[in-house]
């Protein structure tokens, strides 16, 4: 029998492996369900058994001791794209803290596995599924693997995104197409894959991370191509809200403003200060600011909220 302690030891070993990560997926070698639950994705992946985590490790004990998070998502399964770092990882941490089993999906295997270990190390339930959202066939394989492994997804957070910054005359068709494929087409493919199961079960949450750039034609550091993709996500979300509303499935969009992540780390200090001077609260967002909004929209308290575009931007957009 796999004990809670052996799981923790297993996670510790995973963490050690990550310290000296070689760029390859490392799996634990204890005789635990952790072994043999790798995804069938083309890219290697590491999984933690969600039931094991829930039943054997007393998931939530640590969280309950912290006292600040409710566990209303207990038994729910959430897929978060681009969750190896930044906003996506904060969302994964948040939903795991609310009791969901979270599937961290990302192109970055090492960071994704590290994220699984971090969440597991604090009593959460997480697994990793590798994907390149820039390859539609890979997205379809991800959807198949996840459905085979978990039967269903209750919460889909389309978070992954890439940005394009130059003026339109500098953007090649190939760059535009890859951006649209990652930022918009993947949202369509994953929604199409998981919405039928959500409507059949009578409960579901689709939360898309767009951008204020999608409402104002770019700006900040995104350009018109990025704005087009994110504007498409906003419109698509409203359409899904309309299509799925009577089935207990909500679909909402969150538009972050400037948020400190790797995505915005290329801004110069001067650019950053200029943007901050336009934010009423006087600071950039942090990933947990966005994650808090996702946690609320995923909860039962938000069952009457759908089709909304929620700016989480410190007041930058005020109309
Ligand atoms: N940070 C901001 O200021 C800001 C503002 C507005 C909107 N957003 C949006 O928030 C979301 C998260 O952004 P972030 O700031 O955390 O960015 P980030 O670059 O820190 O993280 C993005 C994640 O997506 C993953 N990813 C990139 N390409 C991928 C691909 N082809 N397949 C799978 N995964 C891939 C990356 O590996 C990374 O883990 C994005 O959609 C972004 O457009 C961010």
Automatic annotation (TrEMBL):
Keywords: Oxidoreductase
SUPFAM superfamilies: NAD(P)-binding Rossmann-fold domains
Domain of life of the native organism: Bacteria
Regions that span the bilayer: none
Positions of the Ketoreductase domain: 76-261
UniProt cross-references to InterPro entries, sorted A to Z: KR_dom (IPR057326), NAD(P)-bd_dom_sf (IPR036291), Sc_DH/Rdtase_CS (IPR020904), SDR (IPR050259), SDR_fam (IPR002347)
Pfam families, per database record: adh_short_C2 (PF13561)
UniProt similarity note: Belongs to the short-chain dehydrogenases/reductases (SDR) family.
Identification of the protein by name: 3-oxoacyl-ACP reductase FabG
Organism: Agrobacterium cavarae
């Amino acid at each position: 029998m796999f004990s809670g302690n052996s799981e923790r030891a297993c996670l510790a070993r995973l963490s050690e492996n990550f310290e000296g990560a070689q760029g390859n997926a490392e799996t634990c070698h204890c005789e635990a369900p952790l072994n043999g639950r790798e995804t069938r994705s083309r890219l290697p992946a590491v999984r933690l058994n969600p039931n094991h985590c829930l039943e054997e490790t007393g998931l939530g004990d640590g969280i309950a001791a912290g006292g600040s998070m409710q566990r209303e998502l207990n038994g729910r399964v959430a897929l978060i794209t681009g969750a190896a770092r930044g906003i996506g990882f904060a969302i994964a941490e948040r939903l795991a803290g609310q009791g969901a089993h979270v599937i961290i999906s990302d192109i970055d295997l090492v960071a994704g596995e590290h994220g699984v270990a971090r969440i597991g190390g604090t009593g959460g339930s997480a697994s990793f599924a590798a994907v390149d959202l820039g390859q539609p066939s890979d997205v379809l394989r991800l959807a198949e693997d996840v459905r085979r492994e978990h039967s269903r997804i209750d919460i889909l957070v389309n978070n992954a995104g890439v940005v394009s910054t130059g003026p339109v005359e500098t953007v090649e068709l190939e760059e535009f197409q890859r951006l649209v494929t990652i930022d918009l087409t993947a949202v369509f493919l994953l929604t199409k894959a998981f919405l039928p199961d959500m409507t059949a079960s009578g409960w579901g949450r689709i939360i898309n991370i767009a951008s204020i750039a999608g409402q104002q034609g770019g700006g900040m550091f995104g350009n018109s191509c990025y704005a087009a993709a994110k504007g498409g996500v906003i419109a698509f979300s409203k359409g899904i809200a309309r299509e799925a509303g009577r089935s207990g499935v909500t679909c909402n969009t969150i538009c972050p403003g400037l948020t400190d992540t790797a995505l915005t780390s290329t801004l110069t200090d001067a650019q950053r200060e200029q943007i901050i001077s336009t934010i009423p609260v006087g600071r950039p967002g942090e990933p947990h600011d966005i994650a808090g909004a996702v946690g609320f929209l995923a909860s039962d308290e938000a069952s009457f909220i759908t089709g909304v575009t929620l700016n989480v931007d410190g007041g930058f957009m005020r109309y």
